[in-house]
Amino acid sequence: MTLKLRCDEYGFECDFSLEGEKSLELLEKLRIHFEEEHGIEYPIDAIIQMIVNRGHSLDSIKK
Ligand SMILES: [Zn+2]
Predict the structure, then answer these.
(1) What is the widest separation between alpha-carbon atoms in the chain?
(2) CB under 5 Å of ion ligand 1: residues
(3) Could you tell me the pLDDT band of residue 62, with boundaries at 50, 70 and 90?
């Protein structure tokens, strides 16, 4: 299952988006983007929570 992540859904005025296989690797890419482009270091658990809060099921992601 693919997951599409848009930076502006997470409170930034930014047109960055990611789309790919739902995986921890994809979330890690978003985490790196937040860190490098916005200077905010979220723990990966916070990213996971953000995705879940947007209604995405993350059953298939193994921590
Ligand atoms: Zn961004």
Answers:
(1) 30
(2) 7, 12, 14, 16, 37
(3) low
